[in-house]
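sry for the spam today, last one i promise. C-alpha cells for design, 441 residues
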C-alpha cells in the first residue's frame, strides 16, 4: 500500500501528529501503524487500580481518536524500514511505501537488574494489561511494594494506601522525587506519605524479590518487606530501536531532533517519548517523557511533515502530582540543577492559603521561585500544598519562564482575588516569593 505520511506509533504524539497533518492538508493519505488496539489514558491508570475509576472509562477507541479523522489505522508492528526505497515492512507481511515518516515509538519501562524480577506478580505500569492485572491482585492483596520514588511510583503508592493496602516505596536516591524537586519539597512529600502510613525507604537498593513462584517479600540490605505484589516504577527509556536501524542520530536520552522535530535523516520526523528534547534554559539535552511534551511535539511534527515550518519551543518540563488531599508541582530548573549548571541563583519563598482563611476549606500553599542572579529572570518554580490552585500556578509560571519574566514583573503581578477561589489580595504566594527574592538582591 502507498501513503503520503506513515506514522509509527499510536500514543499521544502519534495521534496529534496525524490529526494535525490531516487538518493542515485533508487530502493527504495518512497511515498509522500501532501495536495494540485502542488508546489508554496512562496517567489515569493508578486510579483504576485503586477503584476510583473504571478501566473502560480511560480507554478510547481508535475510531474515536484516529479513524474518525480520516487516518488509516493498522494494528500491526513495523519491523523494518528501507530508508532509501522509502518502504516499511510489518509483522503481518504488509509493505507500505511512504513519502515521509513520523516516528512516535514511545518509551519502554526501565527494569533494573533485580534478582527475582521474573516472579509472578511483579508488574510495570505501561499498558491495559498491566492496569487490569494490578487491579485484580490489589483487590485481594494486603501488602504492596513500589520500587521507584518518582511521580508515578508515589502516586501508585498513595492510591494503594487509600485503598487500604500496606504500601512501601523504595528508592536509591536520597529523597523521593529527587530529580524533580529540591530536598525541602521532597521532604514535605515524604512526611505526608509517612503520616498516611506509607513506609519510605530512601538510599536503599533492592537486593532481591523473593518467593516460591510468586512474590512473597522484597529484600533491602538486611530487611525483609512483605509483598503480595511489586510494582517497578523506575522510569522509562526511549524506544529508539527502529530509528537506530535506519540510521537516525541517537542522543543520550532518545532520538535527536531539531526545532522542527526533524531527525538527522531527510523526510524522517520524530516526536514524543522516543525523542531527546533540549532545555529552554540550559539549551542542553534532557529527557521529557511527559504527555504534554508528546502532544506538542506531535503537533509540530505533523504540521511540518506536510511542509510547514512550525518551531517546537524548548522544554521546561512542567508537572503536577496529587497525593491524598495535597498536590505538588514544578517547572523549569530546581535550585540544585541550576547550581550544578553553574548558574548563580536567587531563591524566593512565599507561604499563604489557597483561599481566604475565613473559608473552611482553605488550605496551606507554599511556593518557591528560582531566579537567575545575572538577568533576574525566572528559571524555576516549585509549589506544594492543598490541591486547588497548584496546576494553574505551575502553568502560569511555565509561561513566565518562556516569556523571560523577571523578579520585578512578578512583584507587580496583577492577579484576581475572591474568598472562594484565591488567597487574599495581599498574600498571593507567587508575589510573596518574588518579593522575598527581591529583598535578597
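last one done:
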Amino acid at each position: 500500500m502507498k501513503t503520503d505520511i506513515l506514522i509509527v506509533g499510536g500514543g499521544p504524539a502519534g495521534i496529534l501528529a496525524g490529526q494535525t497533518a490531516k487538518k493542515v492538508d485533508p487530502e493527504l493519505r495518512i497511515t498509522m501503524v500501532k501495536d495494540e488496539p485502542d488508546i489508554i489514558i496512562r496517567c489515569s491508570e493508578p486510579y483504576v487500580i485503586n477503584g476510583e475509576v473504571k478501566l473502560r472509562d480511560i480507554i478510547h477507541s481508535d475510531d474515536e481518536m484516529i479513524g474518525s479523522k480520516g487516518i488509516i489505522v493498522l494494528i500491526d508492528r513495523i519491523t523494518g524500514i528501507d530508508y532509501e526505497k522509502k518502504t516499511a515492512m510489518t509483522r503481518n507481511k504488509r509493505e507500505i511505501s511512504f513519502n515521509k515518516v513520523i516516528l512516535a515509538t514511545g518509551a519502554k519501562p526501565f527494569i533494573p537488574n533485580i534478582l527475582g524480577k521474573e516472579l509472578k506478580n511483579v508488574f510495570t505500569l505501561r499498558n491495559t494489561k498491566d492496569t487490569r492485572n494490578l487491579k485484580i491482585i490489589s483487590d485481594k492483596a494486603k501488602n504492596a511494594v513500589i520500587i521507584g520514588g518518582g511521580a508515578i511510583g508515589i502516586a501508585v503508592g498513595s492510591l494503594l494506601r487509600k485503598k487500604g493496602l500496606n504500601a512501601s516505596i523504595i528508592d536509591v536516591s536520597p529523597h523521593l522525587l529527587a530529580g524533580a524537586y529540591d530536598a525541602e519539597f521532597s521532604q514535605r512529600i515524604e512526611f505526608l506519605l509517612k503520616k498516611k502510613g506509607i513506609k519510605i525507604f530512601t538510599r536503599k537498593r533492592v537486593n532481591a524479590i523473593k518467593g516460591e513462584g510468586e512474590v512473597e517479600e522484597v529484600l533491602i540490605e538486611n530487611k525483609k518487606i512483605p509483598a503480595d505484589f511489586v510494582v517497578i516504577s523506575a522510569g522509562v527509556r526511549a524506544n529508539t530501536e527502529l530509528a537506530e536501524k535506519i540510521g537516525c542520530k541517537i542522543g543520550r536520552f532518545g532520538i535527536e531532533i531539531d526545532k522542527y522535530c526533524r531527525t538527522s535523516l531527510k523526510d524522517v520526523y520524530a516526536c514524543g517519548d522516543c525523542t531527546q528534547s533540549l532545555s529552554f534554559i540550559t539549551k542542553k539535552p534532557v529527557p521529557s517523557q511527559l504527555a504534554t511534551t508528546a502532544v506538542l511535539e506531535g503537533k509540530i511534527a505533523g504540521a511540518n511533515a506536510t511542509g510547514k515550518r512550525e518551531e517546537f519551543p524548548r522544554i521546561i518540563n512542567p508537572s503536577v502530582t496529587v497525593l491524598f488531599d495535597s498536590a505538588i508541582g514544578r517547572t523549569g530548573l530546581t535550585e540544585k540543577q541550576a547550581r550544578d549548571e553553574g548558574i548563580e541563583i536567587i531563591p524566593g519563598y512565599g507561604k499563604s492559603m489557597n483561599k481566604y482563611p475565613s473559608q473552611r476549606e482553605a488550605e496551606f500553599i507554599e511556593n518557591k521561585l528560582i531566579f537567575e542572579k545575572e538577568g533576574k529572570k525566572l528559571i524555576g518554580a516549585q509549589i506544594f500544598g492543598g490541591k486547588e490552585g497548584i496546576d494553574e500556578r505551575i502553568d502560569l509560571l511555565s509561561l513566565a519562564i518562556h516569556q523571560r519574566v523577571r523578579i520585578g514583573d512578578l512583584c507587580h503581578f496583577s492577579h484576581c482575588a475572591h474568598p472562594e477561589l484565591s488567597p487574599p489580595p495581599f498574600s498571593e504566594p507567587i508575589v510573596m516569593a518574588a518579593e522575598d527574592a527581591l529583598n535578597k538582591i
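The chain has three domains: 2-108+236-305, 111-232, 325-438. ok im logging off now
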